Amino acid sequence: MANEPRTGVWFRVKWIGTICGVSQVPHRLAVVTLLLMFLMPVSARAQDPQVSLGVLAGGTVADQAGEDAFTPHDRFGFIGGVSLALRLSGRWSVQLDGLYVQKGGRENNDNDPGDLDDELSLVYLEFPFLVKFALSAGATRPELFVGPSFAYELSCRYDSFPDGSSDPVSCAEAGIQTRTLDVGVAFGADVEIPLGSGYLVVDGRGIVGLGSFDDSDDDLDYRNRILSLMVGYRFTL
């Protein structure tokens, strides 16, 4: 795993760590989420809430941040699951997702074709809790959202030559120790479009790990991060 200049799709969001500082992000995220909850109009919170259930599926572009991370060549994966939303007013809502998410990273040694490539494949069951604000109160609802995300590791595999004589092994067999729980922040936007008795949903989001998922005594710095695009359907219960 090389410590080289970071490039790739994540230059768009690397300012998060730079501005906030990894150690400060959890506290600031908690404060922002609580402020959003308490700043909702009292009349809105007093209205009868509207509960909806949705299904989502799509793809991810993943790599890693951190001093010891793979050089950032994007790894493509799957994301999908269910979503439960509670609309508190015409504009405010909260949402809990349960998602199967593929993360990880690749290190492609493009400058040395004779060298081996490496791939780390991580699979999580992830639970983002989102505070959402609709930009429009009309039937079509574009929304912005942010919130904490808690990921439970389902599997971890390492492959030293994924594009050739592939021989993946478990991370434990490869000597890689990872944390079972990975805490991050999810942020992004979606749009709900009326369709039949429910809504067509298009969701674009990023999820950035707030800390290293390494669990070894070496105290290595690896942080997950993904961009995802999902399409789904939501209906009111």
Structure description:
With 237 residues, the protein is mostly beta strands. The protein has helices at 15-20, 25-39, 42-46; strands spanning 50-65, 75-87, 92-107, 118-134, 141-159, 169-170, 181-195, 198-209, 223-236. The protein has an 8-stranded antiparallel barrel with strand order 1-2-3-4-5-7-8-9. The N and C termini lie far apart (48 Å). 35% of the residues are buried. Mean pLDDT is 80; it is low at 1-26 and 42-46.
Domain count, please report it. 1
The CA-CA distance between the termini, in Å, is 48 Å
Q: How would you sum up the major sheet?
A: 8 strands, antiparallel, barrel
The name of the CATH topology is Porin
Principal-axis shape: elongated
CATH architecture: Beta Barrel
CATH top level assignment:
Mainly Beta
What proportion of the residues is helical, as a percent range?
10-25%
Oligomer: single chain
Short descriptors:
single chain; about 240 residues; mainly beta; Porin; eight-stranded antiparallel β-barrel; 9 strands; elongated; disordered N terminus
Secondary structure blueprint with pairings:
Blueprint: H1 15-20, H2 25-39, H3 42-46, E1 50-65, E2 75-87, E3 92-107, E4 118-134, E5 141-159, E6 169-170, E7 181-195, E8 198-209, E9 223-236
Antiparallel strand pairs: 1-2, 1-9, 2-3, 3-4, 4-5, 5-6, 5-7, 7-8, 8-9
